[in-house]
Write a structure and sequence with these properties.
Blueprint lengths: L5 H34 L1
Length: 40
């Protein structure tokens, strides 16, 4: 098992979290716009 420095591991965790959060936010906004156009 490769030993990863704690700081690098934390940076990767934060980066992955930001990517996931950004993707979820983008999907939510896109879905909201789609529904708004349909029912607006």
């Amino acid at each position: 098992m490769l030993q990863v420095p704690a700081k690098l591991r934390d940076a990767l965790a934060v980066g992955l979290f930001l990517v996931l959060a950004g993707y979820v936010t983008f999907s939510g906004i896109r879905l909201a716009l789609l529904l708004w156009q349909r029912f607006g």
